[in-house]
Specification:
By secondary structure, this protein is an alpha/beta fold. The chain has two domains: 123 residues, Enolase-like, N-terminal domain (Enolase-like, domain 1, 2-Layer Sandwich); 218 residues, TIM Barrel (Alpha-Beta Barrel), CATH 3.20.20.120. 39% of the residues lie in helices and 16% in strands. The protein is built from 15 helices and twelve strands. The strands form two sheets. Strands 4, 5, 6, 7, 8, 9, 10, 11 and 12 form a nine-stranded mixed β-sheet that branches. A three-stranded antiparallel β-sheet has the order 1-2-3. α3 packs antiparallel against α4. The longest helix has 21 residues. It is globular. The two termini are 36 Å apart.
Length: 365
């Protein structure tokens, strides 16, 4: 059985500065075995903190970095290695960045397992995975309803029949929200799905009032209307709301997903935060499953493999800006066409980042 010889975080930053000086950042993780097989994962969070969680030396049996835990381990069982990482980090992270780093490592281990088997990851997760998944185009709402109309029209022209808007300025006022939704519905194709991401902007009463006001737009869901820890309020909201409720993207552990799944209509696990094993465990508890996949194409494709194997999976998030921003990492990869992503059929994830791009955009100390 081949053993792990390298655990390499790749914290990356794109050069063009965004408003306020912020830049697009992400962290990919490469794991290599002694027979030369490599696997790739991604952690959706701070690349600086992810790297620390991976590279930290041994302090205690329950407080050590993932590299120290994984080096020398046989790649015999993804679930065993996941448990090993959780035990070895239990003093420093039951949630948040450490679990996100574990998720990245788990994804890389799935990639290795599938490459060694000569199969797509989806075939390791289910016997008859779907060959393609419907996508919803996703981006933060533009500053004005007119720009929102233009964005949705462009996505419609590209073949998408499902669109999500949200984040500020959406959520600031009822009048503003209605104007954004009117513009989006007008631009979308007849019968297209439309959903909103409230980004935890509302209290319970406001969320219910917004759901009532949004009824006429026939929304597929309202995403994260409440702060993520208000579980009892979310259960009440779901029972009263005329619009389905979606949540779960912020949960990084099985326990977190298990508390959210019963109080939503659509569960949205992010496998670059929680890993595939946690998502698989929670999926049967929710009526429907959609991805939260919002950065690189590796992120999106990993979600596609997981969803393809789940019977209650519905839609794959296609982050139009993220895919465009990070296209330099995957210059030859196939993209969504006519609103669907064909599942890559090569071994593992079916794609690899470009080594030159990794070197060019790596964040140094």
């Amino acid at each position: 059985m081949s053993r792990i010889t390298a655990v390499e975080p790749h914290p990356l930053r794109l050069p063009p500065p965004l408003p306020g000086g912020r830049r697009e950042e992400c962290c990919l993780l490469r794991i290599v075995t002694e027979d030369g097989t490599e696997g790739w994962g991604e952690a959706h969070g701070s690349p600086w903190l992810t790297r620390a969680a991976i590279e930290a030396p041994h302090t205690h049996a329950t407080a050590q970095g993932l590299r120290h835990i994984l080096l020398g381990q046989p790649v015999d069982d993804v679930a065993r290695l996941r448990r090993l990482m959780e035990r070895g980090t239990q003093w420093i992270g039951r949630d948040g960045v450490v679990m996100q780093a574990i998720a990245a490592a788990e994804l890389a281990l799935w990639d290795i397992a599938a490459r060694r088997a000569g199969l797509p990851v989806a075939r390791l997760l289910g016997e008859n995975p779907r060959a393609a998944l419907p996508c919803y185009a996703s981006a933060k709402v533009p500053p004005t309803p007119a720009e929102t109309h233009a964005r949705i029209a462009a996505e419609r022209a590209a073949g998408f029949r499902a669109h999500k808007i949200g984040w500020p300025p959406f959520g600031a006022s009822l009048a503003g929200d209605l104007a954004f939704l009117e513009a989006a519905r007008e631009a979308a194709a007849p019968g297209a799905l439309l959903m909103v991401d409230a980004a935890q902007a509302f209290d319970e009463a406001t969320a219910l009032a917004r759901a009532e006001a949004f009824r006429r737009f026939d929304l597929a869901w309202i995403e994260e209307p409440l702060p993520r820890d208000e579980i009892a309020a979310q259960a009440r909201l779901r029972a009263a709301s005329p619009v389905p409720i979606a949540s779960g993207e912020g949960e990084c552990s099985v326990a977190g997903l298990l508390r959210v799944a019963p109080v939503v209509d659509i569960l949205q696990p992010d496998v670059t935060r929680c890993g595939i094993l946690a998502a698989l465990q929670a999926a049967p508890l929710a009526p429907r499953l959609c991805s939260h996949s919002y950065t690189t194409l590796l992120n999106v494709v990993a979600h596609a493999h997981a969803l393809a194997a789940l019977p209650n999976a519905w839609l794959l998030e296609w982050p139009t800006k993220g895919i465009a921003d990070w296209a330099v990492l995957f210059p030859d990869a196939a993209l969504a066409a006519d609103g669907h992503l064909a599942l890559p059929q090569g071994p593992g994830w079916g794609l690899r980042p470009d080594p030159a791009a990794l070197r060019r955009y790596r964040m140094e100390e």
